[in-house]
Amino acid sequence: MTSDRTTADIDLIQRIIPHRYPFLLVDKVVDIDGSQSATGIKNVTFNEPHFQGHFPGAPIMPGVTIIEAMAQTSAVMVGVALGLADKNFLVYFMAIDNCKFRRKVVPGDVLKLHVETRRGGGKIWKFSGRAEVDGELAAEAEFTAMMDLPKD
């Protein structure tokens, strides 16, 4: 079953991926083009627990959480495209390649997570992602994931 939806709000996101506070790192997904591309939105707030220690007095969003936010955006995109809401859908990282960080992401930023599918359709999917703040590149990476698709 496929979907023609082009957005996912926080309620749908939580019906697709299992992540919850403090590890749900995408607030909305827009511009979903099937399983080909999408844009995640992450509103970065000072209340997030990682800012207590990264770094006191100079809060910076950890790079690994930016990459995780890209991956969550990709999982939501695939989940929407394949109609996987309420299906116990899990995704596991297999590789992160060509990862680069270009700009600090701080509380108050709106992180836009642009993801594209490079290879997909079975259990193993490959994506590329770019994270931007105000049109400025903050991070980029390619990543591979195993989709634990539910049995019908």
- The shape is globular
The share of residues in extended strands comes to: 35-45%
The CATH architecture would be Roll
- What's the end-to-end separation, in Å? 11 Å
Tell me the name of the CATH class.
Answer: Alpha Beta
Number of helices: 2
Topology pattern, helix = H, strand = E: HEEHEEEE
Superfamily (CATH H level) name: Hotdog Thioesterase
Percent helix range: 10-25%
Oligomer: single chain
**Overall number of structural domains:** 1
Instruction: Please name the CATH topology.
Output: Thiol Ester Dehydrase, Chain A
Mean pLDDT: 95
Structural class: alpha+beta
**Spatial ordering of strands, largest sheet:** 1-2-4-5-6-3
Radius of gyration: 15 Å
Low-confidence stretches: none
Biggest β-sheet strands, sense, barrel: 6 strands, antiparallel
| Counted beta strands | 6
Topology:
Elements: H1 10-16, E1 28-33, E2 37-43, H2 63-81, E3 90-101, E4 110-119, E5 124-133, E6 136-148
Antiparallel strand pairs: 1-2, 2-4, 3-6, 4-5, 5-6
